[in-house]
Amino acid sequence: MDFSKQKKGTTAIWAGETERFFQGATTPPIINSVTYAYDDLDEWYDVATGKASGFIYSRNTNPTVHVFEEKVRILEGAEAATSFSTGMAAISNTLFALLGPGKRVVSLKDTYGGASRLFLDFLPSYNVNVTLSDTTDHDQLEAEIAKGCDLVYLETPTNPTLKIVDIKRLATAAKNVGAVVVVDNTFATPINQNPLQLGADLVVHSATKFLCGHSDAMGGVLAGKAELVEKVFRFREINGASLQADPAYMIARGMKTLELRIERQNASALKIAQFLKAHPNVNDVFYPGLETHLGHDIAKSQMSGFGGMMSFSLNGTYDDVKKFLPKLQLVHLAASLGSVSTLAGPPRTTSHVELTEAQRAQLGIPESLIRYSVGIENVEDLITDLDNALRGL
Ligand SMILES: *Cc1c(COP(=O)(O)O)cnc(C)c1O
Fold it and tell me: Where in the sequence is N6-(pyridoxal phosphate)lysine found (predicted)?
């Protein structure tokens, strides 16, 4: 099938599934076999040495896992893709495979908490030089990149205040110094944003979030230039953080409705953001789809939809958050995001729990902030739920 002629919703369903499966099955079989047998030693040798395609051992590659990798590869317009047991495995394997002693990485202060820990705690102990720049200060970012670096690691929109960074602008700066550009595309999903088309070399996802979409399986994926993906794949083979067939099946199944879910979540989130913005008990709303959002113009130029994630602060303190959140009926008060059901929580107990109040303030995270991951429930019900809870304040 020529996927270049298909729209993303079609690709999400058919990619990796165009060949007949075992016994004519029309859904990918879950192949839990650890190993793959050969009658012909020459054929086995060719597969083992990469001269022929096939499978040898499931820590390296697996047919069910391959279906999921193909979906992401084609949706992101990538030459190659490989997968991992979690999103953090994708990020850490990528950084550890591509960096080393004496190398320099430039990234943002606002990256996902786990990525931040790699930059602040683990990579420096391997003598990797790490610079974390102000997330929205593009002049500072360009200046840091121009000093020379090996890797630029970006995330947009960011957690939890949905800051936007200009991928094309920073990828251009990175190209000038020969640095590899990696973008965490978890919040946007390949439906709303394709970093490789904006000049990035690699894109990573926590598949645990929107790709899976049901909060019932964990995974991670890397897609991009074949040579770079291969390098990370060789490291992951040995590092061992491989995705298993069962979660790969769940994620690939979830991805069949990716476009439907994201279109719904894009539309609902915008309506909810507009409702909250106009509410007297709400102090501020952080959603890139609002014209008042600082990164709106960049978001409009690089995203085809603004996503299902937002955050908002109450006119009040953390005590008001404690009163407000339990009044919501149509949310799970929990960490994570990107599921069919709406999920909410304060950064103080979720993404930024390790930081002090002063550190959160420095990142522009008010104590009355609530992160809200819009599900696919009917938007009128979600707005009524928010309205009822806000009225009680
Ligand atoms: C959740 C998340 C991760 C980590 O993914 P896991 O699957 O939990 O390991 C990385 N980046 C972003 C933006 C995330 O939201």
Answer: 209
Q: Is residue 180 part of a domain?
A: no
Q: Measure 112 CA to ligand 1 centroid, in angstroms.
A: 7
Say yes or no: CB of residue 189 within 6 Å of ligand 1: no
88 lines ligand 1 (CB under 6 A): yes
Instruction: Please say whether the beta carbons of 317 and 368 come within 8 A.
Output: yes
User: In this predicted model, what pLDDT tens digit does every residue of 77-106 receive, in sequence order?
Assistant: 999 999 999 999 999 999 999 999 999 999
The tally of domains found in the chain comes to 1
Residue nearest (by alpha carbon) to ligand 1 atom 6 = 87
User: What distance in Å separates the CA atoms of residue 132 and residue 130, rounded to the nearest whole number?
Assistant: 7
- What range defines the domain where residue 350 resides? 258-391
Query: What span, in angstroms and rounded, lies between the C-alpha atoms of 311 and 370?
Result: 5
Closest CA to 166 of 146, 130, 140, 191: 140
Atom of ligand 1 nearest to the CA of 159: 13
- CATH, residue 344: 3.90.1150.10
Asked if 148 contacts 131 with a C-beta cutoff of 8 angstroms, the reply is no
| pLDDT attached to residue 351 | 76
| 324 belongs to a structural domain | yes
Strands (E), 228-295: 282-286
Measure 91 CA to ligand 1 centroid, in angstroms.
Answer: 9
- The verdict on residue 262 lying in a domain is yes
> 137: Cβ–Cβ under 8 A, 6 or more apart, which residues?
none
User: By alpha-carbon position, which residue is closest to atom 7 of ligand 1?
Assistant: 87
Does ligand 1 lie within 6 Å of residue 113's CB atom?
Answer: no
Q: Is residue 358 part of a domain?
A: yes
DSSP readout, 171-199?
A: HHHHHHTT-EEEEE-TTTHHHH--GGGGT
**Ligand 1 near 186 CB (within 6 A):** yes
Q: What is this structure's pTM?
A: 0.97
Indicate if ligand 1 lies below 6 Å from the C-beta of 276: no
129 CA → ligand 1 middle, Å: 23
Q: Which two tokens stand for residue 341?
A: 């059901």
pLDDT in tens, 133-164: 999 999 999 999 999 999 999 999 999 999 99
